[in-house]
Amino acid sequence: MDKRSIIDSLIQRHEEFGQYLASLSKEDFEINRKEKWSAGQDLDHILKSIKPLSEILSNKEFIAAKFGKGNGTSSDYENLVRRYKGKLTEGGTAFGNFIPEKINWSKKADLLQLLHQRIEKITESLRGYTEEELDELLLPHPLLGALTVREMLYFTNYHVVHHQSNIIRNLKSVDNTM
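Structure for DinB family protein, as requested:
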């Protein structure tokens, strides 16, 4: 995926996630059963996941100095998703700062606005990158290790879809138990 496609996908997928969450009732937004996160918690997790990216992408020099440079190649989207799913199958889960808080309905609108702002900041920073820089600069991922910026963006694109699917599946399981 080239830079323009990545930016378009980031915007589209996060807008779809936000619109889906905006459509949920208070009960569906807050409910969690069987140790599964509520939709609000999934939103909080996504926000916590993209916050570091939104804060660091604008500083390429810092990224290079702190995390280094790779060999100039990135995995493709499908391979990155396969690696991530493999880590989840091995028992990988969110930890530390990425574990969501309980999120009440009253916070939903503000958090959805924050989601929009963070994606806007990420995509604005990306406009200053060359295709080569996306494949050269490295960032740390808590489960996958060192990723190129392009790979981190692939992850970010997949991650939001993964969590939206989790919410949909969890709400269906709640409906089936009633």
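The domain at 3-24+36-176 is CATH 1.20.120 (Four Helix Bundle (Hemerythrin (Met), subunit A)).
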